[in-house]
Specification:
InterPro entries: IstB_ATP-bd, P-loop_NTPase. Pfam families: IstB_IS21. GO terms for molecular function: ATP binding. This is ATP-binding protein. By secondary structure, the protein is of the alpha/beta class. The chain has 10 helices and 5 strands. It has a 5-stranded parallel sheet with strand order 2-3-4-1-5, sandwiched between helices. Helix 8 links the parallel strand 3 and strand 4. The longest helix is centred in the first third of the chain and has 35 residues. The radius of gyration is 31 Å and the shape is elongated.
């Protein structure tokens, strides 16, 4: 006489189904399997979340995407030393105690086209990728222009609100990069000196780091930004990096003077006076 189990199997065959005997899995194995699946999903979500956060930080930073260490040509001793300082600065962020211990400032100074902005940008990209450090890159002159326009209370372009937002971001961001500090200017105006000095002092109090980029040497920089502002810089743990190598920018004027073309007596010549 067939058992109930045999009859169920026969019915399954008649319906085109093959019965698979139940496989017992103990609780500990099931728990391990489900935890592994859950951890995999959590890691994937964390990875996607980090990617979105990094993209968001990069979008707000206003950095040149080409300013990376991979694109930086280390063809002179000053750049090699600058990269060494830069990578030490980046590596220090691994230590949370160092981050909380105070405010740190790097001053990059030297002539045009020496790689100052590129090196600063490379530092910023690395800090965003590795530690999700928030970064803001700005030219000082553009902020001062925005500050000036914000006083036009009759303007309809919302300049005042835009300036207040950027000014707050200058205070809050983890790493502030100020480029072209006092470019083409001998001395900042008195109110601009006070404003910049206050920004630096507030960032100092909140343990926020800065990179200042200038074409002045250090003595000229002190005179250009004023004593109050320079005293603010002295309060930081300061790293001074001089860029003195050759310019990396393309030449427009040829090294050899071009031969002057002789003008023929006939034909059109502009601005002729008869």
């Amino acid at each position: 006489m067939d058992s109930i189990k045999d009859k169920i199997q026969q019915l399954g065959k008649a319906l085109g189904r093959q019965h698979v005997p139940d496989k017992y899995t103990d609780y500990a194995s099931l728990r391990t399997e489900y935890e592994a699946l859950a951890n995999r999903d959590v890691k994937q979500l964390q990875k996607e979340g980090k990617k979105r956060r990094i993209q968001d930080i990069q979008g707000r930073s206003d950095l040149n995407s080409k300013w990376t260490f991979a694109n930086l040509v280390e063809d002179s001793q000053d750049v090699i030393e600058a990269v060494s300082y830069a990578k030490s600065f980046i590596a220090a962020h691994e230590d949370m105690t160092w981050r909380r211990s105070g405010a740190h400032m790097m001053i990059f100074y030297g002539d045009y086209g020496r790689g100052k902005s590129h090196t600063a940008g490379a530092i910023a990209h690395e800090l965003i990728e590795k530690y999700e450090i928030s970064v803001l890159y700005r030219q000082l002159s553009s902020i001062l222009d925005m500050r000036l326009f914000s006083y036009d209370f009759s303007a309809q372009d919302n300049a005042g609100q835009k300036y207040r937002e950027i000014n707050q971001e200058l205070l809050d961001v983890d790493l502030l990069i100020l480029d072209e500090v006092c470019v083409n200017e001998t001395v900042l105006k008195q109110n601009a000196q006070s404003w910049l000095g206050n920004v630096l002092r507030q960032r100092l109090a909140n343990h926020k780091n800065c990179i200042l980029i200038t074409n002045h040497n250090l003595a000229e920089l002190e005179n250009a930004i004023g004593r109050y502002c320079f005293e603010s810089i002295k309060e930081y743990d300061t790293y001074k990096v001089k860029f003195s190598g050759p310019s990396r920018r393309k030449e427009i004027i040829p090294a050899q003077p071009e031969a002057q073309k002789t003008q023929s007596t006939g034909g059109y010549r502009p601005n002729q006076v008869k």
